[in-house]
Each structure stands twice: as structure tokens, then as C-alpha cells.
Amino acid sequence: MATVYRPEPAVATEQRTPGHILKRILERLPLHLVLIGMILLWSLPTVALLISSFREPQAIASPGWWTSLEQGWHFTTSNYEQVLEARGMGRAFVNSLLITVPATILVLLFAAMAAYAVAWMDFPFRNALFLLMVALLVVPLQMTLIPVLRLYNQLAIDVTVPIIGGRLFGTSSYLGIWLAHAAYGMPFAIYLLRNFFGSLPRDLFESAYLDGASDTRVFFRIVLPLSMPALAALAIFQFLWVWNDLLVALILLGDPNLAPMTLRITNLVSSFGSQYQLLTAAAFISMVVPLIIFFALQRYFVQGILAGAVKG
Amino acid sequence: MASVTFDHVTKQFQDSVAVNDLTMEIADNEFLVLVGPSGCGKSTTLRMLAGLDTITSGRILIGDRVVNNVQPKDRDIAMVFQSYALYPHMSVEENMAFGLSLRKTPKDEIAQRVKEAAQILGIEPLLRRKPRQLSGGQRQRVALGRAIVRHPAVFLFDEPLSNLDAKLRVQTRAEISKLHQRLATTFIYVTHDQTEAMTMASRIAVLNLGVLQQLGTPQEVYEKPVNMFVAGFIGSPAINFFNGKLFQTGELIYLETDYFRLQVPPEKHLPLMPYLDKPVVLGIRPEHIHDPQFRPSETETTLITAKVDVTELMGNEVFLHLLANDKTFLARVDPRTSARPGQEVQVAIDLSKMFVFDAETEEAIVH
């Protein structure tokens, strides 16, 4: 269950003499040292990226980002200004959001509905349908790119629409890439959510039916609120996946004006391969949003991974 | 308020029959307890009435209306689940109001009814809390409250006391009885606990293997069980059974078991005549086996000899675990008894309270 009430654990009354405290610290020291070491090791590349992105263009040629820490204050925000304005990263950032947010919401909403149906509604071939959906997990995404691209070219609708991209549908449209991302994310999402929904107690549903709730009500008023951890975990997965995607955007988005940051950074690499300072700034901009999302939802993320493991 | 009728109701799962040709009528305002061992079909019966399970054949009526194809929410019933099934993310108040708000009851009426139910159950201070902040007993009350606010025609209870500790169970049992008197509505209550059945029911339905064994008041079911299953299931500690045989000597009929011989009182002769020289089963409840020193006056008893295996002092009485050869049986005797483990003692069997069952069909011949 979402939030499990745990009474305060009964603490064994330990003698809190200085000797005992010292012993405890010494016992845990190796564990803490290993943890601190791992944290440093894992965060080092990110810190290096952050520092490099604020270095002056001429400094970037000299090796070693750590040397800039020794030479006093020589940092600048000009890399960010240049990347955001001149190199079009600002627009790409907005594009990334325009692609990722709807693609995430679509998956959450429809996968949750599908998962509810396969978990709790009674209809013929329910399990077969669920198996089929889960089986789609093994289809490599790359195999679908060409058929989908051909389909989009045939179904292109050349009506200019603001906000969602140049055209209504096809390769110059966000609608196309939203649907593609949603479809790619759906099998895993349905699998995860069905297992979580399935672990909710049956009595709750029956009680709600007796209270007069329809399936729609049960879904929105009972299932969704109780599944916040699983939904949050799924939201993080899907958001990161779409945000970091290069391949699908590269193939299915023909219009360079609609390109997300991943595409834009790739272009930066090929045209400004030697100008590290611009690449580091661009890379860090693309990392900021996933970091914010992760830190905001990480409490749910851990619970969501354990989804269904422990019954409340 | 409504009566409930089961008319030849059968429920078949893939390869087993959960409820077999059940016919019974439950009157308006009745407190009916469905009792039986696990897997006897009592919960299935309740769930069919609630509309949570479909009926394979037969009809169920609430009042005059056949509800076979009526949605659970339209049956005008409320159910209290063993697990309470409270919505964990809603406060007590929201839990109780949920059903009413779905039915578009006006806000002030909802508030009024929730307040009323909270008063009846003494949970007013808890209205803002979440279920996880409540104890088991409090959750049970909220579950009751959620049913009460609906003002249903029939209340259904599915083993509502199973998750409570022993003391709370006794207390809640009395409260549910009081609630029944106060609400004057039909209560249908499922339990595997014969004590709950005996103490609360206005009538008991004993089920076994999907078949209704007996339907009657607690007293009828206890004093006149129709077969060995009912006699064995109702009553705690359980009844003693002895295999035996009937034979006639002149005017007298004797029942002889492997361990002792009883002379059957003349008023019980007639129904036993067809069973002479046939195997029968003697049933005798532990409270009808007395210490001869302290037997009630004016009871016609037969003395038999047995060895005391274990004694259990309950305070107001003593349970004697007795051995006649290798057969163990139980007697509830006066606490002043002098019987001690290991002793050979004589105990007095009250012949007027004996049951005799057909050994083949297990049906009662004499009760």
C-alpha cells in the first residue's frame, strides 16, 4: 500500500555509555567509508561536467577541470548564454519538454486504464491479451522504425498547427512522436501497473462496487490515489526514457525546428567538436530536468520499485 | 428492511459445487447467522446475495424482487468485510460518506447521517483520522459505520470479528446484537465460530459442503440437531460420539457400545424400534456427563466407569478428559469434583439428553 503505517519500533534499551557509542561508530565505519567512496565515484563525472561548463573558453584547452579550482575565480556563464541563444538550445529545451511531458502523460493514463482492465475487469481473453501486451516487450524498437516511418509518411496530414509542431500528423508533427513514444513505453508500463493494481486487496473493489461505484469511479477514486508510488516510478522511467531519446526523434522528426535537445547536442558535437565548453553547458542543461524530476519523486521511486512486494 | 429468499440456489465453480440447491427464507428484521466450517459455502452464499458472485441456478429475492441480474449497488444492501476494506487514502468521515456521495445524497444529509452513525458507534473523535491511524477495533467500527449510513434494507457481515482479539470480539459481538435491535433491519452474518452463531442469531443456518444442514433457532439447533454434523459442530466443547448397537431384552431396549451399556428410557423407544440390532451412534454432550456426587436431582442417569486422563479447571466447572479403554471423551462437571488424573472414576450419563444417530446416514433418530 502507498503509505504503510509503522508504529515506532520498540528500541532495545541499550546502554549509551561512551564506550558503546564508539563501538557502534567503529562497527559501521567500513560501511560508511564504502558508501562515501561510491558516492564520490558516481558523482565525479557530473561534478566535472558542471565545473567544465562554467570554465572560460581558453581554459578548456588546458587539461584537467580540477586545475580551475586551484587558480582562483575564473568562471563565466558565457557558455550557457551562447548555447541557449546562438546555438538554439533554448528552443530545443522547450521542444524536449513539448515532446516528453505529453508522451509521459499519455503512457501513464492509458497504461493505467489498460492495467486496471486486465487486473480487475472480467472479459474474455483477458489473460491472453495481457500476455500479448507483455510479449511486445521483446520486440526491438529499432525493428519498428522503418515501418512506422513509412506509415507516418503515408498518413501525413499537411495542416499547419501551432504549438504541437509544424503539421498535424506525420514526420513534422509532435503528435506522431508522442504516439510512437507512448506505444514504445506501453508494454512495460502495463506490466508494472497491472502487477501493482493486482496486489491491491479485492475487498476494496468489492466494497466500492457495493457502495455504488462504477469501474470509472473505482479507477479514479480508489485505484489511482492508492497507486501513486507505482505511477511516480513509472513517470520517472518514462520521462527519462523519452527525454534521453535520440534515435526515435532522429528518425521520426524530420523538421529541425522541432528537434529536442538530444538531437541538437549531437549536431553541436559534429559542428563544434573542439569547443568542449559549449558541449558541457549543453549537456548540463539537458541533465537538469531529469535531476529535478528524480529528486522530486525519488521518495516514490524507491517505493515504486518495491511495488507490490510488501502488502500494507 | 426486507426479507430475503433463496430459492433452489446453486453455485458451481469449474469443478466443484460451492452451494447446492439452497432454499431458505429469511424474514424481515431477522438476525440470521450462516455457520459452518471453512469451505462449506457460507461466504459464497453471502457473496451471491451481495451480487459479488453470480448464481449458477435458482433465484434470490430481496423483498419481492428477484435480484439475480441486479447490480450489487442496486440491491440496497451493505456489507462489512472481514478485512474491513476501508479506503486507506480517505479519512474516516470520507470512508463513511463515500457511498452516499456516489448516490448524490445532499451534502447536509450526508453530514447528518455520518454524525448519527458516528454517535451510535462512539467514533466521533476519529472522524478526521486515516484508517492506518486506527486500531483494529476502531477500524471495525468504521466499517460498521460505513454500512449504517447507507440505511440499507439488508446488512451483510462476512466474518467481521475474525481479525479482533478475543476480548474485543466478545465486546463487539454484544454491540452488533445491540445494533440489530436498534436498527431493526435484516442482518445476515457469516461466521465459522459457533459461539458467535449461538450468541447473536435469531436463527442459525448450519451449512456443510454446500448443503444446508439445519435452519432453526440457536436452541433448536443445539437441543435437536438433525444429524451428526450439526450436533458435532454446534456446542463447545464438542459433543462425544460413541459407536454402538441397539438390542431388546423383553420390554427393555439397551444401547451397547464397546465400552459400556445404557438402558434407553422408555419414552425414546418408539423411534428406535426399526433400528434394533443395527449400528447406531450415541451422542452425549459433555455437560450431560456428571460427577455422580453432584448430579442434578431428578435426572435419570446411568453410571459408567472411566479413567481420568487430564483435568482442566475452568473456575466455574471442570473439564474431565476421560478414557474408556482407548476411547477418549469429555465431561463438564461440578468444580467440587474429587476426580484426579490417573484415577478410575464413575460418571453419570444423563439419559434424557442422549442423542441417537443412524450410523449409516448420520441422521438423528432420537433427540
Structural write-up:
The complex is a heterodimer of chains A (312) and B (367). Chain A has 312 residues and is an all-alpha fold. Helix content of chain A is 69%, strand content 2%. Chain A has 2 domains: 1-50, no CATH class; 86-309, MetI-like fold, CATH 1.10.3720.10. Chain A has 13 helices and 2 strands. Chain A has a two-stranded antiparallel sheet. Chain B is α+β, with helices and mostly antiparallel strands and 367 residues long. Chain B is built from 9 helices and 21 strands. In chain B, the strands form 4 sheets. Chain B has a 6-stranded mixed sheet, with helices on both faces. In chain B, α2 crosses α3 and α3 (107-121) packs across α4. The longest helix of chain B has 18 residues, at 166-183. At the A-B interface, α8 and α9 of A face β6 and α2 of B.
CATH class descriptor of the largest domain in chain A:
Mainly Alpha
- Strand content bin of chain A: under 5%
Summed up, the helix count of chain A is 13
- Along the chain, the helix and strand elements of chain A come as HHHHHHEEHHHHHHH
Q: Tell me the span between the first and last alpha carbons of chain B.
A: 36 Å
CATH architecture type of the largest domain in chain A = Orthogonal Bundle
For the record, give the distance between the C-alpha atoms at the N and C termini of chain A, rounded to a whole number.
5 Å
DSSP summary, beta strand count of chain A: 2
Structural class of chain B: alpha+beta
Tell me the overall shape of chain B: elongated
